[in-house]
Amino acid sequence: MVSNAMLASQLDTSDEWITTRTGISQRHVVDPGTSTSDLAVEAGRRAIDNADVETIDYVVLATTTPDRICPATAPEVASRLGLGHVPAFDISAVCSGFLYGVQMARALISGNLARAVMVIGAESFSTLLDPCDRTTRPIFGDGAGAVIFRAGRSDECGALLAVNLHSDGALADLIAVDGGGARARSAGRHDPAYIRMRGRSTFIQAIKHMEEVTLRTLDEVGWKVDEVDHLVGHQANQRILLSLAKHLGLPEEAAVINIREVGNTAAASIPLALDYGVRTGRIARGHKIVMPAFGAGATWGAAVLTWPDLKRAEA
Ligand code: COA
C-alpha cells in the first residue's frame, strides 16, 4: 500500500492536492516480481469460490499490463486456475477493458458458444508509471477483479441486460504509452514504457461520453434514471464519478466509490468496485446497476445488469 504521504515524500505533490483533485488516499502496488497473472489468478480463484457454475468455457483477461508482450497472459491464468485447455485471450482496452470483456462474454453465451465465461480485469499498472511523474503516479494503482457470467434468463437476478461499447482512435494521444510499442521500436527508439496522460482533456471527454452512453444504455433496457440503485463506474477520479451522477440526475449516494482505497486500477476498476459494493453491504440481490467506463484509446461504454444471488465465500 502506498499512501499519499509516502508519495509526497518522493514527488512534488501533497496529500491535500491528491485528495481534493482525485479522491484518492492510497493505492496498492505489486511486490517486486509479482505480476498481472498472479493478481488475476487470485481474483479468478475467489470468483470460482463464489459462483454457481460447474465449468468455465472461456477466460477473457482485460489488461493494459500483460506479463509479457507475447504470449497473452490469459492462457497462463486459465492453466493456473486448473481450467484445462479452455480458450483464453487478452483484451487491451485499458480502462474500458472490463466492459469489452463483458461484451465478449455476452456474445459467446448468447451465441451458444459457451455456458460460462470468466472475465478478469487485472493490472500491475505501477509498472507503467514514471517514478518521477507527479501527474500519473498518484492516480494509478494495481489490482484485479473477476466476474463469471453464465447462461440464464433475462428475468433472473444477475441478468446482463445490455452493453454498449465505443472507440475513437482520433483521441489516441490523450493517454498513451509509446515506449515498447512496435512504432517506437521500428524507428529504433527505446523509450521507457511509461504512461502519459492529458488529464484535463481526458476529464472532459470522460464525462461527456459516459453520460451519453449511460443514458442510451438505460433507455435500451427501459430503465428510468431514478430506478438505478448503483452507478458502478470506472474509478478514474472521484470528481468524475460525482459529476457524472449529477449530470445523470442520480443522487451522490448512488455512486459506488472505492477510489479512495485503490486509486485508478484501469481494467480492474469496475470489478473491484462491484466487490467493494457487495462487501460493504450496499449492493444486494436484485439491485439495478449501471457500469460506465472511459479510458485510453479512446474507448468507452456502459453495461447494465441486476445483481445476482451469490453464495459468498470468505476472501
Ligand atoms: N500534485 C500537485 N500538483 C499537481 C499534480 C500533483 N500530483 N499533478 C498536477 N499538478 C498541477 C499541474 O501542474 C497544474 O499546475 P498549473 O496550474 O500550475 O499548471 C495543476 O496541478 C492543475 O493540473 P490539472 O492537470 O489541470 O489538474 P486537474 O484538476 O485536471 O487534475 C487529474 C488532474 C489527472 C486528476 C484529472 O485531470 C483527471 O482525473 N483526469 C481524468 C483522468 C481519467 O479519466 N482517465 C481516464 C481513464 S485512465
Reconstruct the topology from this structure.
Elements: E1 2-3, H1 4-8, H2 15-22, E2 26-27, H3 36-50, E3 58-62, H4 74-80, E4 88-91, H5 97-110, E5 116-123, E6 143-150, E7 160-167, E8 175-177, H6 182-186, E9 195-197, H7 199-221, E10 230-231, H8 238-248, H9 259-262, H10 269-279, E11 288-295, E12 299-306
The protein binds coenzyme A.
What would you say this structure looks like, in words?
The protein has 315 residues and is an alpha/beta fold. The protein has 2 domains: 2-150, Peroxisomal Thiolase, Chain A, domain 1 (3-Layer(aba) Sandwich), CATH 3.40.47.10; 160-306, Thiolase/Chalcone synthase (Peroxisomal Thiolase, Chain A, domain 1, 3-Layer(aba) Sandwich), CATH 3.40.47.10. It has 10 helices and 12 strands. It has helices at residues 4-8, 15-22, 36-50, 74-80, 97-110, 182-186, 199-221, 238-248, 259-262, 269-279, and strands at 2-3, 26-27, 58-62, 88-91, 116-123, 143-150, 160-167, 175-177, 195-197, 230-231, 288-295, 299-306. The strands form 4 sheets. The protein has a 4-stranded mixed sheet with strand order 4-3-5-6, sandwiched between helices. A hairpin with a 3-residue loop joins strand 11 (288-295) and strand 12. Helix 3 (36-50) packs across helix 4 and helix 7 packs across helix 8 (238-248). The model has no long low-confidence stretch (mean pLDDT 96). Bound molecules: coenzyme A.
